[in-house]
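Need tokens for this chain, all 130 residues.
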Amino acid sequence: MTEQALLALVADTTSPGGRIYRPAEVVKPAIFTSGNPIPRWPGGDGCAIVYFIVGADGRYEEGTGVPAAGSTRALAQAALGYLPRWRLLPAIGPDDQPVRQVAQVRIVKRGKGTVLSLTPQAINKPCPEP
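Here are the structure tokens for all 130 residues:
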């Protein structure tokens, strides 16, 4: 799936499986549960942003992972491999029920540290400059 295809899916309010909300449209955005693995990769410093759909059950919807333009390719590919293993608390929609939501995960590797964060910022926010 491409970034454009994911955005089109989010814009389609009649999407199979139910509407997909943006973080700004929900009462509570999806958040990581504790204990999610951090992607390992053999490269040096890097940044990757990956967009994906979190289902109403808190799981990654298969095939919806898309690396953002400007991401470190190898780190983004590692993150895509981890998506099925990550667990989240689903977003809560306007009717106080779990809903599907487009999410953005940011992985920043600097030196020996790696930071993994699920961010509610707008889609297309670039990786920070090295």
